[in-house]
PLP-dependent aminotransferase family protein (Acidovorax bellezanensis), 460 residues
Amino acid sequence: MQDDRLPIWLPRLAAQGGPRFLQIADALQAALADGSLTPGDRLPPQRQLAAQLNVDLTTITRAYDEARRRHLLEGRGARGTYVAAPKVELTSVLDLSMNTPPPPDGVDFDDMLKQGLSQVLMRADSALLMTYHLGGGSDSDRKAGAKWLEPMFGSLDSAQVLVCPGAQAAIAALILALTEPGDVILAEPASYPGLRTAAAQFGRRIIAVAADKHGMLPEALSQACREHKPGLVYLNPTLQNPTAITMAERRRKEIASIAKRCNVRIVEDDPYWLLADAPPPPIATLAPEQVYYISTLSKCLTPGLRVAFVLIRDAHERERFLVALRSFALMVAPLTAALATQWIFDGSAETLMQGVRKEARLRHRMARDVLAGRYSGAGDGLHVWLELPGYWNSSQLARAAESEGIAVTPAEAFATGSGSVNAIRISLGSIKDRGRLKAGLQRLSHLLARRPESFSAAVV
């Protein structure tokens, strides 16, 4: 005789409580936390639970799959499904060094991925997804790029938008297309390390231009343009990596005016604009003929797509860019480009991005609470730039943190000149679990409060 009573750990499903399979998985997780379930407990067969809850079997299957993904359950063949023993972490390193989007709470990424790929495979010729494509993206991909850029620029001609395998590839191709060996590239004193890597590989020189709390100083840029005749200026003006500064609109107008007057071209690398709270218009809206604009999906959605959009107004310069890009990266992988296009047009990209924005803000509030007076972030974006007390230097602090199982990035990694600020960058998205992130921030806060002479690494 079938027992129709609900398991004690499972609450009644709420009509407004979100997807039912997630409610079931959440109830499993809560039951483990409060002791209603313990490792080794056997769960009801899926058909039985579906009947008890008056849902279809697919809902229960998805709930159990989600619980397995969270390492809550394990299957034992014909014997059934059991509560899993706690997963043993083989590494204790808490990675606060990599700028990746945090996993958004309430967004079923696995389902979004499956649905997106299903739509792509239904609508596209699979042979076309597995062959060579011309660089710069298909018409559909470029239209998706134009749609992605609408919040920054309004309506765009999609012919001006090129699709690239990530922002790093776009930066490298722009350097190759627009400069010659030995040319100078101007950048802020602390800047994206990928710029320095690409410039060194191609034989270009980076010269640091002084900046303040609002970004690159206009008068310093003007002087550097007269003195060095640069091939390019590189800027990351919104939630800058690593300082998290957002350049004000007035400063952007001054920079744009100098670019026009000195006839210097700007690479505006803007991965965080869509994550920022009311950011100013891009510099590319103020000097469209001088500025090459890059927007990547890696920081707003997921790095695995490897898709970035580049806005280049001039047709001749677009062709030069594509020639340079083809020398080292023929195309974006067609399958991931098609998935990005599908997500942008069906609204999944917007849903995922809003989830990332919300989660990032929650994590900033956590960092503000844990780091107390040391926190100086903007409250949005993916990272915090933490200036250190005088008794620590950034390399020393990074080594001490590593010894305590925390990875952070010291200021030296971002320096474009001979000196660097005494600071570290803390990335808030790379640790999936919010509780583990808080634990890492707390350990880092305790370390910051100690003087180096009281720190001694274990020797084994």
Summary: The longest helix spans residues 348-371. The radius of gyration is 25 Å. The chain has a mean pLDDT of 92.
